[in-house]
Write a structure and sequence with these properties.
The protein is mainly beta. The protein folds into 3 domains: 113 residues, Jelly Rolls; 98 residues, LCCL-like domain (Ferric Hydroxamate Uptake Protein, Chain A, domain 1, Beta Complex), CATH 2.170.130.20; 122 residues, Jelly Rolls (Sandwich). 4% of the residues lie in helices and 41% in strands. The radius of gyration is 24 Å and the shape is elongated.
Length: 362
């Protein structure tokens, strides 16, 4: 309907909001969402925000939930009739969510997320209330982040390497850190640690974080394997670089400059690798020497002096250097296009969820 805002629904979790959220929702709109979990499981709904203009019996604007399997209804809800608890546990695998509005003057609308009973530890993108102790090392916590957190309203401060200001939207920060894929959501392990003086901004996994000041606490996300072995976040050594072509440049002074594949290493000073000008379907190939578990990639432009950079790219992998498999990400439907750099100075991170197991990466 015309009242639907940001929506991402999967069988195991999702996020939905009214149009314009958190701005005022429009007059005379309606939206109906059907949530369907796997058979044998039940749905759990987290009310992040329900701010609909108050009226008697919520007649002007309302949120209504219905369980068609049992005939149970929840609501209607509006500002003067809000859910009694932030988490609604149903006994059904199917729930219909209906939002409608008439003429009104105020109200942010609604923001709701859901997961299933298969996820015993739950969190939401909207609040940290649901962080629960987990039987992992001391000071670690586990939350379940629903799918669809990337595009919700709210800011994040920090980056994957240093952690995030504790006022950041938790599950949105988890997407930025590359520990979950937005289209699937998932379990997140994190720790609350001492805050730092300054949080640096970064562009990672399609999200921009902000530069932020001191906070009392910061959020640090962990991959479970890193709790057992810190080496899983190490930078992998590249044995050999190869490329479809390289640029042999002759500058205005008549000097030669070779933009060869070996110059693609991230730590290289000066100019980088570049394909021959006008080359179609150019590629850069990394040989890791042996089959490795690759969890992500960092890209950067050529340098401040040479203002060149890659704005988007595909990734393929191979175990033998002959047979190549395109990376399709967690959806598995089509080749994933990774969002690259917007300038030649900053580093951009993209996570592979699930990881790539291969010797060769293109």
């Amino acid at each position: 309907g015309n009242g639907c805002g940001h929506t991402l629904l999967t069988p195991h979790s999702g996020t939905l909001s009214s149009k314009n959220y958190p701005g005022t929702y429009p007059n005379h709109t309606m939206c109906c969402w059907r949530l369907q979990a796997p058979p044998g499981s039940s749905l759990l709904l987290a009310f992040g925000d329900v701010d609909l203009e108050p009226s008697e019996h919520c007649a002007h604007s309302s949120l209504l939930l219905a369980d068609p399997q049992t005939g149970t209804a929840y609501g209607p809800y509006c500002r003067n009739s809000v859910p009694s608890a932030p988490l609604l546990v149903t006994n059904s695998s199917t729930v219909t969510v209906l939002f409608n509005s008439t003429s009104h003057r105020s109200g942010r609308g609604l923001l709701v997320s859901y997961a299933t009973s298969q996820h015993p530890v739950r969190g939401t993108h909207y609040t940290q209330e649901y962080i629960s102790p987990d039987p992992l090392p001391i000071m670690c916590f586990s939350v379940y982040c629903p799918a669809g957190c990337k595009d919700i309203h709210g800011d994040i401060w920090g980056n994957p390497s240093q952690g995030y200001r504790d006022t950041s939207v938790l599950c949105k920060a988890a997407v930025h850190a590359g520990v979950i894929a937005d289209e699937l959501g998932g379990q997140v392990t994190l720790s609350r640690e001492k805050g730092i003086t300054l949080y640096e901004s970064a562009f990672a996994n399609g999200l921009h974080s902000k530069r932020g000041s001191l906070s009392e606490k910061r959020l640090v996300f962990h991959k479970v394997c890193c709790l057992l072995s810190p080496a899983c976040d190490d930078v992998l050594e590249v044995v050999t670089f190869n490329a479809s072509s390289w640029w042999h440049e002759v500058d205005v002074l008549g000097q030669d400059r070779a933009w060869v594949a070996e110059r693609a290493a991230l730590s290289t000073t000066g100019h980088s690798w570049a394909a021959e000008p006008g080359a179609k379907a150019a590629w850069l190939e990394l040989d890791l020497g042996t089959r490795r578990n690759v969890t992500g990639i960092i890209t950067k432009g050529s340098s401040e002096q040479h203002d060149y950079y890659v704005t988007s790219y595909h990734v393929s992998s191979s175990r033998d250097g002959k047979n190549w498999r395109p990376y399709r990400g967690s959806s598995g439907q089509e080749d994933k296009v990774f969002e690259g750099n917007a300038d030649s100075q900053g580093e951009v991170s993209n996570a592979f969820i699930p990881p790539i197991v291969a010797r060769y990466i293109r």
